[in-house]
Structures are given as C-alpha cells and as structure tokens.
Design a protein that fits this description.
Distance between the termini: 36 Å
Number of strands: 0
Radius of gyration: 26 Å
Strand content: under 5%
Structural class: mainly alpha
Largest sheet: none
Length: 702
C-alpha cells in the first residue's frame, strides 16, 4: 500500500502545492532549470560544509551568503514556475545576482565593515538599500504582499516614527543609521531568525528530505495502517498517527499535508469520511508536526535561541501538549466514526507492523541518534549534522551492500560501517565525512550506485528549494526584530497588554491569541511567532506567566492560524486532494484541533502542563501532583470539547447534553476559584446522564 502511495506522491503533491506554491514543481529539464538545480546543490553543499566545520567562516559571513543564495534562487525559480516571458525572467536573474552580490560584498568587506560600524560609507548605504530591496521583493514573490507590507510598516516606523503622537513616537533616526542597523551586523535581516535558518532549520529540512527519499513515509504509513487501520474509522486514525510520526522528521505542516495527505485523504474518503472532514483531519494532524518532538518545527529552534535555553528544554515543554494534541485529534475522529458508523479494514488487508519494521528498521537509526544527541546536551546543529550524515551513510551503504555477493560479507560491511559511524563521538565529524567520501567512490563503480548518488544529489537540490520560503521569511522578519531593538517599539503594545492584564489575565491572553490568528491570515508560522513573541512575550512575563509558557502560547496559536479561516494555508493545501472547499476544510479542522485552542490557556494557569515550575497549583500540591492533576483535567476537558463538537459519545448526544459538556469543559479551562469543582460536577452529570440515556433501547437507533 505504501508503494502505491509513493508512486502517486509527485503528481498529487504538485496538484496540492501548485495551487499555492510556485516552487512545488521540480527543476525543469532546460538549461535554465539545470543551472538553478546546480545552484541549489551548491547552496546545500555550502550549508553542510559550514555546519560540519569543513568550512569555517565568521557567523556574519555565513548568514550573508545564506541570504544571498536564498535571493539568487528565489527570483529565477518563481519566474520559471510562473512561466514568465523572457524579459521578466532576465530581470529575475538580475535581481538574484544583485542579491548574491550583497553577500559577496559582506564577505570581502567583512573586517572593514566591522571597523566602520556605525559610520557607514555611501557605498555601504548603497549595498544596504540593495539588500533590503531584494529581500522585500523576494518575500513578495514567494509569499505575497502580507509580510512585506507588515515589515515595510515597521521600517517606515523607524524612519518616520518621530512624527507620531506620544506614546507611539521615538527620538528619530536618519536613513544611514536605519540602513546600517537593518542591513549590516546581526540585528536586522541577518539577526537570530537568519542565524537559525542558516544552521538548524536548513539541516533539518535536508535531514527530512533524505529520510523521505529513503522510504520513511512508506514505513510510517505501513506502521500506522498496521496499528490502527482495523479500528473503527481507521482511515482517519492512520492519518493522525502517520502525520504525528512524520512530525518527528519534518516540522513543516503544509509539506506534511502534501507528503502524507495524498495517501491518507483518499484513504479516509474510502472509509466513508466526508471529503471536508478528511481534509480537516490531515491538515490538523500535519500542523501538529510542528509541536511534535524531537524535531518539532523551525520555530522551536528559534525559540531556543531567543530564550537562550538548551533545545531539549523546549522539547520538554512541548511533549505533554503534543501528546494531548494528537490524542485529542484521535478522539475526535473516533467519535466522528462512531457517529456515522464507519468501520475499519479487515486485518488481512493491512500491512504487518513487525514486517514493516523488520524490513526498514535501519531508517529509524538516524532518528534514534538524533533523539539521543538532543537529549544528551549536544547542540541541535551538531545533532542535525550527525543525523543527516548517518542517513547519507545508510543510503550509500545500502547501495554498496546490495553489490556484495554473500550475506556474510554484507554483515561484516554493516558492522564496520556501524563502527565508523560510532567513531564520530571520539574523533569528530571528519570520520563520517571520510566514510561518505569512500562510499561515494564505491558507488561510482556500479550502475545502481550511480543511481543512488543521483538520488542524494537530487535530495540536496530539492532540500535547498524547500528551504526557500522558510529562509526568506526568516530574513524579512528580521526587520521587525530590528525595529524592536532600535526603537523599543515592543514596549508600547506590551504596556497595553499589561494594562489589560491588570484587569483580567484572560482578556490579555485572548488579545494575544487574536493577534496571532489575525497575523496568521497572511504570514507563515515563523514570522507570526517572532512578531507576537517579541511583543506579547515580555508583557505576559510581567503578568506572571513563565517565559517558556508565554512563548509556547504564541507558538501554538501561530500554528493554529494555518487552520483558521479565511486563509488557512494548510487546509487549502489539502483542498485539491480532498476535492473539497478549503473553507469547509478549515471549519472541520477547527473541530479536530479543539485541543490546540484549550491547551495553551490551561498551561498559562497551570505551567506544570508544560513541565514548568510555578503556578498556585504547584505551590499548593507540589510539582509531581500538579503535573498529574493538570494532565487529567486537560484530558477530561478536551474529551468533553470533542464530544460536544461532534455531538456523539456512546450514541448521538442531545442538545442539552452537548451544552452541558461544553459548560463543563469551559469551567475546567477557566481556572478561577471553584471553577474546577463546578467543571468536574458538570462533567460527571453530563457523562452519567448520557450513559444512562444511551442504555435505553430507543437510544441505540438514535
């Protein structure tokens, strides 16, 4: 079944992504297309060389070259994807070359630029304006007008904010100071988001691309089918499980929709689910990949850098909410299946979990190594580099092993390769680099080996192309952060949130949530998180919300913004596959993602839900008891939300049962004095009343 799915990945992905993403198609087999392919390959090779310290450059130079490659690839690829005429394509190449020229200028003039920081030459100002112009145009080309307009407003605020009335005004900055701040140094377009994009994010995108090429999607799909395909409404449960597993290697929600949705959405429709509901399940589960440890999404790496905490601290905060998120989605599809009496497939038609793992168990080794390294205190950059290197070793080694004539030789070969892979802990990444070089040479000697090398080469180029939207978003959002650091603009909005919070913390949280959802109408999760965390994070901290929890709060709603109308990018990506309206899919996704709206609020009032200290419950009961209590309460709340939304528990629920379940769930979330007691009482009444009614024979046919 997974082989069938894999055969249809490309056309379906193009159908799903092509509606929104001009980069969805592959590199054209033309001279221009091949040139772009090799530029993308060079981009990935550069990033791997710097990550593995095979090429050591100053961080500022690495960031500048990263942005240079992003711009150089974006303009020609967009022009090619939209099939522009010759003149616009020439202009696109000119813009790409101009953007890369900025990177070369930063490299050549690196030391002089440091020496004259704060006092730029006219030539510096010229290149700075060119850098900002190309970044704005690249963002517009690849993501539309929303993010450039927002970033442009912040840039104008730097230049003209002194003319605004108090308290919105600032002391005023001339154009040279603004350009120097935004286009040079590490506060503007080369700030923390680009640092993260040029290190962690790019590597993990490549890591996911190589694992997908090696067959990880097929493995996850077979495991999910074998585990839950036979259960009631198993198709949707397969989607939840497989998308959750995919989230361990890929943090891109929309990419998950395209990669796994081409198989799971038709499967759900085959089981009897409505097309819109099938699309909503896939969109919700795929977006959940961004909060699923160990890899999570690009935002998690930015959060770790912003908060200056080890990456595993972010993972620790995310683990319980992630499990609850997917458990809630699983529960909702279970209820929907019961409501419409949707059954699973016969077990004999399903793949064997043990057989699938026995066949492809080695694909789990890089993932296991990644988890071990992340939780052993190694940096995500080192862990990602090693995980990618091990994946390449497996792919290249598998091709060499196929050419060996006896099983004994294959066993010896794999043992030796395993010892070489383990040697990096003692002698560093150079050992793995040498092993990869030897395996490349060995693969050149056979036709199958050369095909494997071509697969690796293609993965590098495709990975670079996949990284473009994320990288460009990280670049332009640096202007917003640069505005915050230059003018202190975050204080104004932050003070407003604090003033509201003095009256009601709940209203402050509601205002922050709405800000995230409104921003999500036009911009991706990464800039959404960066903007809202820069503004709301410090304000929520002043209101007593732990810093990690406040950042996770805006992170969650940044993700949910891709599910909420009117934009709902993940839902519209699922629309061509489900053959349903993206707006209808969005409304169904909101039902399935109930937990995503509940968990952040509950974590603010009881930080133990994210394994953080603080909160009255921990002080009263102790930390371990507080964790157990809040997990139980949250599970009950999202269970009641799900039943109320779907209108089914043991049988179809009456209107008063749904109202009672909704009130009980709201009381459990509210966390005001005695609301827990009221919530538990209403929950008991709602569940007991429904179970009593469903015992009657008349209820069976309801």
């Amino acid at each position: 079944m997974s082989e069938t799915a894999n055969r249809h990945v490309a056309p379906q992905a193009e159908a799903a992504g092509g509606h929104h993403d001009v980069l969805a198609a592959g590199f054209p087999a033309t001279v221009e297309g091949r040139l772009l392919f090799w530029i993308a390959f060079a981009f990935s090779a550069f990033q791997i060389a710097t990550a593995a310290h095979l090429l050591d450059l100053p961080s500022q130079v690495t960031r500048a070259i990263h942005v240079g490659f992003l711009v150089a690839l974006t303009f020609p690829l967009v022009a090619l994807g939209r099939r522009y005429a010759t003149a616009p394509r020439v202009a696109a190449w000119a813009l790409g070359i101009a953007g890369f020229a900025v990177a070369l200028y930063q490299w050549v003039e690196y030391t002089p630029l440091l020496l004259r920081a704060g006092d730029p030459l006219p030539l510096d100002i010229g290149f700075g304006i060119l850098a900002l112009a190309t970044v704005f145009l690249a963002a517009y080309a690849i993501m539309g007008p929303a993010l450039p307009i927002i970033s442009g407003a912040f840039l104008l605020y730097c230049l003209l904010g002194q003319y605004l009335p108090s308290p919105l005004n600032h002391r005023g900055y001339d154009i040279a100071q603004v350009i120097d701040h935004m286009a040079f140094g590490t506060e503007g377009i080369y700030g923390i988001p680009v640092f993260v994009s040029s290190t962690y994010i790019f590597l993990f995108i490549l890591f996911g691309a190589f694992l997908e090429k090696a067959g990880m999607i097929g493995l996850f799909t077979d495991v999910a089918m074998g585990l839950v395909g036979h259960a009631r409404g198993g198709g949707a449960k397969v989607a939840v499980v497989s998308s959750g597993l995919m989230g361990t290697i890929s943090g891109s929600g929309v990419a998950n929709v395209v990669a796994t949705g081409q198989f799971t959405i038709p499967l759900m429709k085959r089981f009897g689910y409505r097309p819109a509901f099938a699309g909503g399940v896939e969109a919700t589960a795929s977006m959940g990949g961004q909060i699923m440890p160990p890899v999570m999404g690009a935002v998690a790496f930015i959060m770790a850098e912003t908060l200056d905490v080890p990456y595993y601290e972010v993972v620790k905060a995310a683990i319980i909410p992630a499990v609850l998120y997917f458990a809630s989605a699983f529960w909702v599809v279970h209820l929907e299946a019961g409501k419409h009496r949707l059954l699973g497939l016969p077990k004999e038609e399903l793949p064997s979990v043990t057989a699938a793992i026995r066949k492809n168990w080695y694909l789990l080794l890089p993932l296991a190594a990644l988890v071990y390294l992340l939780f052993s205190g190694y940096t995500p950059l080192f862990a990602g580099t090693v995980g990618l290197a091990l994946t390449v070793l497996l792919i290249l080694g598998g091709s060499v092993a196929l050419g060996l004539r006896s099983n004994a030789l294959r066993s010896v070969f794999w043992v030796c390769l395993g010892l070489v892979a383990a040697a990096f802990l003692e002698w560093g990444i150079e050992v793995i680099a040498a092993a990869v070089a030897v395996l490349i040479a060995a693969n050149l000697l056979s036709r199958g080996g050369r095909a494997t090398l071509a697969l690796c080469r293609d993965s590098l180029a495709e990975g670079a192309k996949t990284a473009l939207p994320v990288g460009v978003a990280c670049t332009i959002v640096g202007i917003i952060i640069g505005t915050m650091t230059l003018t202190g603009a975050a204080n104004t909005f932050g003070q407003f949130i604090v003033s509201v919070g003095d009256q009601s913390l709940f209203l402050s949280l509601l205002l922050t949530m709405l800000t995230c959802l409104v921003l999500g109408m036009g911009i991706p999760t990464i800039p959404n998180y960066i903007i809202t965390s820069s503004i709301a994070g410090p304000a929520l901290l002043k209101l007593g919300v732990p810093l990690m929890v406040s950042h996770m709060f805006v992170f969650y709603f940044g993700i949910l913004a891709d599910l909420t109308p009117p934009v709902a990018l993940a839902c519209f990506a699922a629309a061509p596959i489900a053959r349903a309206s993206g707006l209808k899919i969005s409304f169904e996704a909101i039902k399935v993602a109930t937990a995503g709206f509940v968990i952040p609020f509950m974590a603010v009032y009881t930080p133990a839900l994210m394994l953080q200290d603080g909160g009255p419950l921990s002080e009263a009961l102790g930390y371990p008891v507080a964790v157990a209590y809040i997990v139980f309460k949250t599970t009950l709340a999202i269970g009641l939300w799900g039943a109320a939304v779907i209108g089914f528990l043991r049988t179809r629920m009456t209107a008063w049962e749904r109202v009672l379940a909704t009130l009980a769930a709201f009381m459990l979330v509210a966390a005001f004095p005695i609301t827990d007691e009221i919530g538990f009482a209403l929950a008991a009444l709602s569940i007991a009343g429904h179970l009593w009614r469903s015992r009657r024979p008349a209820a069976v046919g309801a």
